[in-house]
Amino acid sequence: MDFRLDEKKLYFQHVLTVWEGFCQLHKELYDLTCDEYLTLLSSDVDKLEGMLPLKEEIIARISALETERTSLIEKLNNTKLFAKTITKSGDLLEVFADIDQQAALPALKNLNSLLIDIIHKIQDQNKKNQMFLNRAMLSLREVKQGFTGKKTFSTYGADGMTRAMGR
Description:
The protein is mostly helical. The chain is built from five helices and two strands; from the N terminus they run H-H-H-H-H-E-E. A two-stranded antiparallel sheet has the order 1-2.
């Protein structure tokens, strides 16, 4: 029985390592997304183009970590250490909740909360970046239309996208 607990703890450490990796990579992605916004504000197109490969690399590393997480779930299901079949991340957190709570700090729960928070911040920053780009494109369209003499009015919807109304 003690051997099974040790095996669970070993897998728990592996899960912690994966979640730490997720947090680190998502933090890097968030930092890059914020830098992207500052670069948009400064209109530095060359720097912006250089950021795209960095962003793609981070996303590829997150994808590799996701593959590792999926593989870990498959291994755990094959070991039959847990009565419950693990199908998603929430199940993974649930089966290790007892080990996590025995620690002085619930590391897995805290890392998961941090990861969710970072992901929400990335989504919010991406919305800001998109709104900036939408406004810039609208301004360019207005300048272009000023030369052609045709006037089109645009409004922003709740989602930040523009809707044109010809007049």
